[in-house]
Specification:
The complex is a heterodimer of chains A (517) and B (521).
Chain A (H helix, E strand, L loop, with lengths): L11 H7 E12 L38 H13 L3 E2 L6 E4 L9 E4 L6 E9 L5 E13 L3 E5 L11 E5 L6 E7 L9 H19 L11 E11 L16 E6 L2 H20 L7 E6 L4 E7 L9 E2 L10 H9 L5 H12 L3 H9 L3 H9 L4 H19 L10 H12 L5 H12 L5 H8 L7 H14 L1 H8 L6 H11 L6 H12 L9
Parallel strand pairs in A: 11-12
Antiparallel strand pairs in A: 1-9, 1-10, 2-5, 3-4, 3-14, 5-6, 6-9, 7-8, 10-11, 12-13
Chain B lengths: L1 H5 L3 H9 L5 H15 L2 E2 L5 E2 L6 E4 L1 H16 L11 E5 L26 H8 L3 E6 L33 H8 L5 E5 L6 H7 L2 E4 L20 E5 L2 H11 L17 H4 L9 E5 L14 H16 L3 E5 L4 H19 L22 H12 L2 H14 L5 H24 L2 E5 L15 H5 L6 H6 L3 E8 L6 E7 L5 H19 L16
Parallel strand pairs in B: 4-5, 9-10, 9-11
Antiparallel strand pairs in B: 1-2, 3-5, 6-8, 7-8, 7-12, 11-13, 12-13
Classes of the chains: A alpha+beta (517), B alpha+beta (521).
The complex binds zinc ion.
Chain lengths: 517, 521
């Protein structure tokens, strides 16, 4: 652990009263292609170090790159989904710099000729309003290897005894999506940044081009932020020049995106308000302490000596194929949500709860698997949302599938189990005991509907509670609830309450036995 | 017998092998014996010692004889084999060879044994040629004399005090010294053609993209092209046919079918063909243009020989060729500076710990290894290239050079509208003495003034012997250039010219080479 000296910060309200923030977000997405960007090596996450390498991605002398066509199509689809123009012709370039995890000591990346440019993404905020984030470009590049610094105190390269490099990641296709400067976010800048990354993640997941798992690094975010003085009333804010920006790296969760930007705003504001200047630099976000620390200074920009990659021919996408890909794009998440809301017949507020719970896809899949909209929504936004919160994971990461939820509800609908038992079945499924029917069988959780066993239990309850029985006989049908409770306890919950009730009434108030189930 | 075998052409050897008049083991052993007799020795670090041609950096005697025996066995079993099966070949050390050291003439690759074969090498093996070893070259193909090899220069078999050309001087000298009947080369600005010119042999730089670059250690990716080297036009065509063809591992590889170069080398008809003499590549002996008088005289005779054979001569002008050299020396170093960045001691090759540093960083090890591993010429070009690409200078240098490149391509297009092939002297001079230009890089660069335009435009070119210069008795080369993808025209014209000149000389030019001084002992 590095000891980070916290820099002074200002109160957030003070910041937003004095300054207008300008955001810039760079998101790197690892594509989920079966092979790397320029060679045939596989891309399985977590494989044995240096087991997925070849002369090309190791940068051996003489090896040459060949573009992964699937990777190119993924890039075009991302560009289209972000409402970008697709380049008629573009090239790769070499970004030259020395680093041990870069096999060729240059990165093959697009520079001044991105595959997609000039787009936007509409993101929905917590209050239901929409904010349009302008997208500058989406370009293709290759990932680097991964260094592991062994020994020393920090896990960083300085002070390490030695370093190991794993080239499995070298050459994995990346798409870098860069926004234009995002103006007009105001005090909602941190929220907008999080909502943008979240919307981008949903969009990429919908395109099925990436695993988009921030914790595994398949979606990585760098957040640029700068502050400029707030325009006086009546003045045009966009006429005020941008301030000096910092670039925060290592922002590896949605929550961190929001927190890191908020922190940087308060830190920069303190410098500006105390007469210092903001240094243009790379900063590292520390999830544990909630602060950023200074990294490499970018005041003297490194010269990457970019030039067109001579080992790859220019890319000229076939316009007919681009149109085909456009036509095959999935429905944009925003449009889809509106459609689903109508289909499910729920209010704006209810839909927002569903969205905030990140349950849209899960509910949809549960309905597809046979559940009704109401029951699917109930499971995911109540019991399962509670479970996710308790175990501190995303809803989608709970070890239960939409098909299992639908199967569970089917058991309830068939009367095999009741709601109370269903919760126990759910626990079993989450504990990895198998599908709902397996849990029912293994735990013996079936509702007892056998008249003999239930009848005996009812008789015992009537015998044990003569006063209550007398009340029911006297016409106080509502008192039956107490006897039902007694029977259910007796049966350890494994009984169909409606059935119990009707058996009680059949014995004590035959006129009420039907139609009151 | 052995003396007679090494003087045969590859086509003759292939015929004798097919007819089973001779075995591949006999042919291979004859060449290995010749190498042992004339190539000289190397010390433990691989540096040339004592007299000798020093064409080879590495000789694979055992594996060569083993492969030869396999080919003989296959032939004895009645298998149908490719045309050149069992014929020995020397491979330029810039091509990766699985299990065989590949140094590119550089210290920095000391000890590196590639885990894979270059596509060209794979094709040679599939065609059952017998790989004799790896030939010397200027470090990373930077040079025109092989003097920039970290392992010592190769000597010109015509005169051991002179250079054999470069960068592929090892391959050319191996052919001229009868150490191999065939050899491979790579040509970025003349590295096949200029050595052919100064050693009295034949070399072809095919159309860019005709031969795969996969496994060629890159100098300048947009200019590099591998090609065949031999002692006759027909042999060169036979090897060309083996090396060329589309390779899915090289994005810049052409997908067109390979022109029938072997048929073209046996057509023996140039009647009506238009031969364009490039004014800018002819020079003028009187006003000191850098072209040697004897070179121009042999070249003019070659043009006359083509006219006698029925061709028509036209003069064409390519004004941009005068600035091509300057553009080339910006594009080449730019690409090279990036291509050579991978040699950083992290994964393979030489690793040097910096002196006086107890706990060096990766960057310090990289810097120390590169400082120790690269020679002066390589460092000169890396620095030049890094400078030309740096922001603020990019447009003025790399950008302008690319514009010149476009002009060169236009000049070629205009010239090929008037002529079917273009001709010029390959090199302005005959072989110069070892050491003569080592301290004068610019005059060394001028050796390639006539060969560079073809690389900038991607068009194919051949050099073949035009005779010996009167003033020094050393070989002169004539260059033939054809439009892109028309490599066959080189062979059609080259074969006719070769036959005509041999008629005048009364046999191959190499018959006149003095016997290389036998090694002591
Ligand atoms: Zn690979």
């Amino acid at each position: 652990m590095t000891t980070t000296v916290a820099e002074p910060v200002r109160d957030y309200d003070e910041v937003t009263a004095a300054f207008d923030p300008v955001l810039g977000l760079e998101v790197h997405v690892e594509l989920n292609t079966a092979t790397k960007m320029f060679c045939g090596c596989t891309t399985i996450f977590g494989a044995e170090p240096n087991s997925q390498v070849c002369p090309v991605c190791l940068g051996l002398p003489g090896a040459l790159p060949v573009l992964n066509e699937i990777g190119l199509e993924s890039a075009i689809r991302i560009g289209l989904a972000l409402n970008c123009t697709i380049a008629e012709r573009c090239r790769f370039a070499r970004k030259n710099y020395f680093y041990p995890d870069m096999p060729k000591n240059f990165q093959t990346s697009q520079y001044d000729e991105p595959i997609a440019f000039d787009g936007h993404l509409d993101v929905e905020l917590d209050d239901g309003t929409t904010f349009r984030v302008p997208v500058e470009r989406a370009h293709m590049e290759e990932d680097t290897g991964k260094s592991l610094h062994v020994g020393g105190a920090t896990g960083r390269i300085h002070g390490a005894d030695y370093s190991l490099v794993d080239y499995n990641r070298a050459g994995i296709p990346l798409i870098e999506i860069v926004t234009k400067p995002v103006e007009g976010a105001g005090e909602r800048a941190p929220e907008i940044a999080r909502a943008y990354v979240s919307a981008l993640r949903d969009l990429l997941r919908g395109l099925r081009v990436s695993d988009v798992r921030m914790e595994q690094g398949s979606l990585r975010c760098d957040a640029n932020i700068s502050l400029r003085p707030k325009a006086a009333p009546g003045e045009d804010q966009s006429a005020v020049p941008f301030g000096t920006r910092s670039e925060t790296k290592n922002v590896n969760s949605l929550r961190s995106v929001e927190r890191a930007i908020r922190y940087e705003m308060t830190r920069q504001a303190d410098r500006l308000l105390s007469g210092q200047r903001v240094v243009q630099e790379t900063r590292h976000w520390h999830e544990d302490t909630g602060v950023t620390t200074s990294g490499r200074s970018k005041e003297e920009a490194e010269d990457y000596r970019y030039f067109p990659e001579p080992d790859l021919v220019p890319i000229v996408p076939d316009p007919a194929r681009v149109e085909e890909l456009r036509a095959l794009l999935p429905e944009p998440p925003g449009v889809r949500r509106k459609r689903l809301q109508a289909e499910w017949g729920i209010s704006d507020l209810e839909m927002r709860d569903v969205v905030n719970a990140r349950a849209v896809e899960l509910i949809e899949a549960t309905i597809t698997a046979g559940a009704t909209a109401a029951t699917a929504r109930k499971w995911w936004t109540q019991e399962l949302a509670r479970q996710a919160k308790t175990s501190g994971v995303e809803l989608a990461d709970l070890p239960i599938t939409p098909a299992q939820v639908a199967a569970l509800q089917a058991l309830v609908d068939a009367g095999t189990i009741n709601d109370k038992l269903a919760r126990q079945v759910l626990e079993g499924v989450l504990a990895g005991e198998g599908d709902p029917k397996d849990v029912v069988a293994a735990r013996g959780l079936k509702v007892v509907s056998d008249d003999g066993a239930l009848g005996n239990a009812v008789d015992r309850a009537i015998e044990a509670n003569p006063e209550v029985a007398e009340k029911i006989r006297g016409g106080k049908v509502a008192a039956a609830g107490a006897l039902v409770g007694s029977v259910m306890r007796d049966m350890r919950g494994q009984a169909d309450a409606a059935k119990v009730r009707s058996l009680i009434l059949a014995r004590l108030a035959p006129g009420e036995a039907d139609g009151n189930g | 017998m052995a003396e007679e075998l090494i003087r045969r052409t590859a086509a003759e050897l292939a015929g004798a092998l097919t007819r089973r008049e001779v075995s591949s083991v006999e042919v291979t052993r004859a060449h290995l014996d010749r190498i042992a007799a004339v190539d000289g020795t190397r010390d433990a670090d691989g540096v040339a010692t004592g007299p000798g041609v020093h064409a080879f950096l590495h000789v694979s005697a055992e594996s060569a004889l083993a492969e030869a025996a396999f080919v003989d066995a296959a032939r004895a079993a009645g298998e149908t084999l490719p045309p050149l099966a069992g014929v020995p070949i020397a491979v330029k050390d810039v091509m990766t060879t699985r299990g065989v050291p590949t140094t590119c003439g550089s210290r920095i690759l000391t000890g590196w044994v590639p885990p894979y074969d270059a596509t060209v090498v794979r094709k040679l093996k599939e065609s059952r040629l017998v790989l004799l070893g790896k030939t010397n070259m200027d470090e990373f193909a930077m040079g025109s004399s092989t003097e920039h090899s970290a392992y010592g220069p190769t000597r010109n078999p015509w005169d051991p005090t002179r250079i054999p050309g470069g960068s592929g001087g090892g391959s050319a000298a191996a052919l001229a010294a009868f150490e191999a009947p065939l050899a491979t080369g790579t040509d970025t600005g003349g590295s096949i053609r200029q050595p052919a010119s100064v050693t009295g042999t034949v070399g072809v730089k095919p159309t860019y993209g005709a031969v795969s670059r996969y496994g060629l250690v890159a100098l300048a990716s947009s200019l590099d092209q591998a090609g065949p080297c031999a002692r006759t036009v027909l042999d060169t065509a036979l090897l060309h046919a083996v090396m060329a063809g589309h390779d899915p591992r090289d994005s810049t590889s052409l997908s067109d079918p390979v022109p029938d170069v072997v048929a073209a080398a046996t057509t023996m008809d140039v009647s009506g063909m238009r031969i364009g003499v490039v004014r800018e590549l002819h020079g003028d002996a009187e006003n000191g243009s850098g072209y040697q008088a004897g070179v121009l005289r042999r070249f003019d005779e070659a043009v006359e020989a083509l006219v006698d054979a029925g061709a028509k001569v036209v003069e064409v002008s390519c004004p941009s060729f005068t600035t091509a050299l300057a553009a080339y020396y910006l594009i080449l170093p730019s690409e090279a500076s990036s291509n050579l960045a991978k040699f950083d001691a992290m994964r393979y090759g030489l690793r040097v710990r910096p002196e006086g540093v107890s706990d060096p960083t990766a960057e310090q090890v990289m810097a120390a290894s590169r400082a120790a591993g690269f020679g002066d010429e390589v460092k000169r070009r890396i620095i030049l290239g890094a400078y030309a690409l740096s922001s603020g200078y990019y447009d003025a240098y790399y950008g302008s050079a690319q514009k010149v490149r476009t002009l060169v391509q236009r000049d070629f297009a205009a010239a090929f509208a008037e002529a079917d092939v273009l001709v010029s002297p390959t090199s302005p001079t005959t072989a110069f003495p070892l050491g003569a230009k080592l301290d004068d890089p610019l005059s060394m660069y001028l050796q390639d003034v006539a060969t560079i335009p073809a690389n900038l435009a991607g068009v194919p070119g051949m050099s073949l012997p035009a005779g010996l210069a009167d003033e020094d008795g050393l070989p002169v080369g004539v260059q033939i250039l054809a439009p892109a993808r028309a490599d066959d025209r080189l062979y059609r014209v080259g074969a006719v010219l070769e036959a005509a000149l041999r008629g005048r000389w009364g046999g191959p030019l190499l018959d006149r080479i003095p016997e290389f001084p036998p090694l002591g002992g």
